[in-house]
């Protein structure tokens, strides 16, 4: 028998909002300034769903960039503020329906993300998600970003529940490892940037938010 579900924790980028293409294009823009062509296939394989500072470390290690990872990260942060700080990314298909359905089941809800608060705020305000997510754990709330468990542990603490009564919804191997490290079971909903990657340890790997809703309803008799 599955445990009694008390709370659901959603990742943000790639799970609630379709942001990976925008993230990829920012790297393309930045690397083009150094005459570097950055293929989307490489982004999908190594950088999608990975915190930005790890992206910067990877790129400095693999490309002839005349700067440190810290300096590259700082440049990227400026672009991120311009691109994400004012306008929301499109919702993942079925995300609103799943969020509203979970809320309707009187389950506790939170967001746990490797993103900065400024990237999440447009989602909360534009789509009126703030009323569903009283707890938003971002990279600014913790010392270690995903795949460390910190953001999930932070969310669980403020939700007042244990990992054994919650579940995470993720889209990337990095996020999955973070949830598992926090002791959470994890649903993976693949998207075009993560499909086919290694999701070992996931409770279930699905292809849509609609499937996630159906799975939760059946698994926990909701």
TrEMBL record:
Keyword match Hydrolase: yes
Listed InterPro entries: HAD-like_sf, HAD-like_SPP, HAD-SF_hydro_IA, HAD_sf, PGP-like_dom2
UniProt superkingdom: Bacteria
The keyword Hydrolase is annotated on this UniProt entry: yes
Keywords, sorted A to Z: Hydrolase
Pfam families: Hydrolase
An example Gene Ontology molecular-function term: hydrolase activity
The protein's name in its UniProt record: HAD family hydrolase
Originating species: Gilvimarinus japonicus
């Amino acid at each position: 028998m599955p445990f009694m579900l008390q709370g659901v924790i959603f990742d943000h980028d790639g799970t609630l909002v379709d942001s990976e293409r925008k993230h990829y294009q920012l790297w393309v823009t930045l690397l083009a300034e150094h005459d570097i062509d950055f293929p989307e296939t490489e982004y999908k394989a190594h950088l999608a769903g990975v915190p930005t500072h790890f992206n910067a470390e990877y790129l400095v290690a693999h490309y002839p960039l005349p700067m440190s990872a810290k300096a590259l990260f700082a440049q990227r942060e400026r672009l991120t503020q311009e691109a994400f700080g004012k306008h929301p990314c499109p919702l993942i298909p079925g995300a609103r329906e799943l969020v509203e359905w979970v809320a309707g089941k009187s389950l506790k809800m939170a967001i746990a993300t490797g993103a900065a608060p400024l990237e999440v705020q447009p989602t909360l305000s534009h789509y009126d998600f703030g009323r569903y997510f009283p707890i938003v754990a971002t990279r600014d709330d913790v010392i270690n970003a995903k795949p460390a468990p910190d953001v999930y542990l932070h969310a669980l603490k403020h939700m007042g529940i244990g990992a054994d009564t919650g579940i995470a919804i993720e889209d990337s191997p990095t996020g999955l490892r973070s949830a598992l490290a926090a002791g959470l079971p994890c649903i993976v909903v693949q998207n075009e940037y993560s499909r086919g990657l290694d999701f070992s340890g996931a409770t279930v790997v699905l292809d849509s938010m609609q499937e996630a809703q159906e799975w939760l309803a059946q698994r926990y008799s909701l």
